[in-house]
Amino acid sequence: MIFTEQIGIIPGGNVTIAAHETGDGFDNDAFTMSGTANIRSNSASSGYAEASGNANITFNTTAALDFLISDINTAGQTGLQLSFGIFKSGTITVSDQLIVETSSDGINYSPLSYSLPIGAGTATWFYRTAIGTIPATANLRIRFRQGAASPSNQYRIDDIQLTANDSNAGITFSGTNFVCGGSSATLVASQQLSYLWSTGSTNQSITVNAPGAYSCVLTCLNGCTLTSNTLNVNDSTPIQYSVTGGGSYCSSPGTGVAIGLSSSQISYSYQLFHNTTNAIGSPIAGTGSAISFGLNTTAGTYTVIATRNSTVCTQSMLGSAVVSITPATTYYADTDGDGYGNAASTIQSCAPVAGYVINSTDCNDGASGVNPLATEICNGVDDNCNGYIDEGCGTPKYCIGPSASYTPPSGPSYVNQFSPFPTLTAAVAFLNSFSPTQHVIFEFQNNYTGTGETFPIVITYQGNVSATAVFRPRSDVSSILLISGSGFGQTSGLIQFDGADYVSFDGSPGGVSGTTSNLMTRNTFSLNCSANFYFLNDATHNTLNAITIEGGASAYHCILFGGTTGTTGNDFNTVQNCMISNRTDAAVALPSIGIRSESSATGAAANSDISIAGNKIVNIEDGVRIELNGSAGNWSISGNHFYFTNTTARKISEAISVNSIGNLIATISSNYIGGTAPFAGGSPLIETNPNIGTSLVFS
């Protein structure tokens, strides 16, 4: 079928062809309709199967009336045939019969022939198929026209149809040509007049959901029938086989478990999925027998979907395989057979292995006598694997320094090896609660920085001759460690010995009571600084050795033996081998006094039996001052050096001043006063103070 034109409908009376075309009244808007005939709705077509019974083209008895259909594309068509309904008004003659003609260029027309009867009853509608050749062209024109000079009949035209041989007559698939798992396939017949499918359907298309062979009897416009081609609808649904395999496997060596399918079909592929949506590997081609998806290591549920390769029809296979993992246990080599494993030698297994144990607490797998249950003995070995060497052997030692960069020394371990005191403040707080039953040593590590201290640091530990406490740099400390703080006031100190007994600060590395000083205290307050060290409230038998002491700006004193609330005074204390001076890091006012004793206490409560020996007191006007009150007993001041390195500063006023009214005996010997270096060396000290040297000695 090329087209059917039934002229359409008009509201009544008649209209021109041009008006009907402009109003889109014709059925075929793609064509151009023109002509001098008009359109009427009376005498509607009837009497033949194709009659539409509405408007028609009317040719009255006026000569040269015509109706032209243009822009019909028949290129490539064969067997073109024109049919139409025609009405004539008379019964006697057909000499004025309408001319029907076609053209491919709109200039040259070729007539087609047809016949009409005459006689009684012939003034009616007929349906005719024209005879002749209709050109196959991109722009075919079909024209109906009055050819007679004086027409005697009126003619009407309706239900124009142009057909061609249908080389595609038959049925085709619309979409898939198979059914799958209950899905459907659609078959469509080519455009004809009527249809009769093998299913009994009379529609142009049918939808089926069962496999089989389907055909259709086609009836065309001219009444011809044709049995179409046969289309086979196949069932591509994959056969459902069972998923096999799965189970649990040990995470070490972690080879996984096999998963497969009980059988398969050729021309199908099978995809393994993990937890429904995650495709594992590439699809496996069916072989007609069981297939394997190999070893799978990921825990979860595995399923399989089969696909027909040619149709993309899919089906889930039966069942699933579950993979689980048994976590392997770490076993540790027990070479020495003591029941404890070596953390550096391991295997993974889900079952015990000979020569391996479940724990990793052996610190020496080559010695059966070294293990966590062994008894620690003093042999330079960590016998009980607790990280400490020879704990409990000799004097306990504690370390002071940040743990992040702390490296334990060789030999017996620190008691707090794995949790060092971060500050001197923390160490002193521990000492103050320490039971005085044995000696104890605190060593500053080479990474000690002095930050984080809280001043004043108050020592209240009351040791005895069998329970001393020593603070010292570790033996490998090669530079000065600084304890720096800010303090002010005449009766206070950065470090206070408040009733403390038998406590030593030894600045010599390793605490050998040598003269090398690798420990410094510095007061950084801006004015009228307090002492660096302050002894009060019956602090006895304490020692400062080889400490570098830098007094603060205008400090009243660098070391103060002060008053007491007790009964014995601050007795039997020693200051030796120390460097006592002004600050070397900043140009500030010099301290007033190096070492001072002043107390309101008298008698036994006065400060007594103090030893000041081998110290260097530099750039301080008054070196040692024993004030009028609060000092008694035997004092020893010997081997000290008093000098100024800053020749523009104030000079020595009183190197040693003993002014006590108490019962005091001072032994003063072998001291060096003057110059700019120890032993009164360097440039001579220019001094005009008449009291320079030892003055105001009272007995």
Describe the overall structure.
It is built from two helices and 58 strands. Helices cover 2% and strands 37% of the residues. A hairpin with a 6-residue loop joins strand 8 and strand 9 (110-112). The longest helix has 9 residues, at 424-432. By secondary structure, it is mainly β.
Helix content: under 10%
State the total count of DSSP E strands.
58
Query: What structural class results from the helix and strand content?
Result: mainly beta
Poorly predicted ranges (pLDDT <50, ≥5 residues)? Answer: none
Average pLDDT metric = 92
Whole-Å distance between the termini? 149 Å
Overall 3D shape: elongated
- Work out the radius of gyration: 61 Å
Strand content range: 35-45%
Major sheet: size, sense and barrel closure? 10 strands, parallel
| Alpha plus pi helix count | 2
Detail the topology: elements first, then pairings.
Elements: E1 3-5, E2 14-16, H1 17-22, E3 32-35, E4 38-40, E5 56-59, E6 66-72, E7 81-88, E8 99-103, E9 110-112, E10 125-129, E11 140-145, E12 155-163, E13 171-173, E14 178-179, E15 185-189, E16 194-197, E17 205-208, E18 212-214, E19 216-219, E20 225-227, E21 231-235, E22 243-245, E23 247-250, E24 257-261, E25 268-274, E26 278-285, E27 291-296, E28 300-308, E29 313-316, E30 321-326, E31 329-333, E32 342-349, E33 356-357, E34 397-400, H2 424-432, E35 440-444, E36 457-459, E37 469-473, E38 481-485, E39 493-498, E40 503-506, E41 519-523, E42 531-536, E43 543-545, E44 548-550, E45 559-561, E46 574-576, E47 579-581, E48 593-597, E49 607-608, E50 611-613, E51 616-618, E52 622-626, E53 631-638, E54 641-643, E55 654-658, E56 664-669, E57 672-673, E58 694-695
Parallel strand pairs: 14-21, 23-30, 34-35, 35-37, 36-39, 37-40, 38-41, 39-42, 40-43, 41-44, 42-45, 43-46, 44-47, 45-48, 46-50, 47-51, 48-52, 49-53, 50-53, 51-54, 52-55, 53-56, 54-57, 55-58
Antiparallel strand pairs: 1-12, 2-4, 3-6, 4-5, 5-12, 6-11, 7-10, 7-12, 8-9, 8-11, 13-15, 15-17, 16-19, 18-21, 19-20, 22-24, 24-27, 25-26, 25-28, 28-29, 28-30, 31-32, 31-33
